[in-house]
Amino acid sequence: MTQKGNTITETIETDRIDVACDGGNGPLGHPRVWLHIRPETRDIVCPYCSRQYVLKEGVEATAATTQH
Ligand SMILES: [Zn+2]
User: Fold this and answer.
1) Distance 44 CA to ligand 1 centre (A)
2) 63 SS3 class
3) What's the CA-to-centroid distance between 47 and ligand 1, angstroms?
4) Check: CATH 2.60.260.40 for 10-55?
5) Where's the Zinc finger CHCC-type domain (predicted)?
6) How far is it, in rounded angstroms, from Cα 61 to Cα 68?
7) Cα(7) to centroid(ligand 1), Å
8) Ligand 1 centroid to 35 CA: how many Å?
């Protein structure tokens, strides 16, 4: 699966629909940003480091109940 100018560098499974990404410590590192899994596709790609976050099987994608 190829997308123009948006090559997935890594795929990470998560059980949360809100994920924080800072690109790690490598050359892809960037300031921490919050990404929100899209319920339609159950994934999100970080615009900074092109890591793909995929919601784990069985996790409700629409349960936006993040409390602080
Ligand atoms: Zn990132």
Assistant:
1) 10
2) coil
3) 7
4) yes
5) 19-53
6) 19
7) 13
8) 9
* Position 46, amino acid: C
Q: Which amino acid is at 29?
A: G
CA of 46 from ligand 1 middle (Å) equals 5
Q: Where are the domains of the chain?
A: 10-55
pLDDT in tens, the chain (68 residues): 444 567 999 999 999 999 999 998 888 899 999 999 999 999 999 999 999 999 999 998 875 555 55
Q: What is the pTM of this model?
A: 0.78
Angle at 51 between CA 55 and CA 53, to 5 degrees: 5
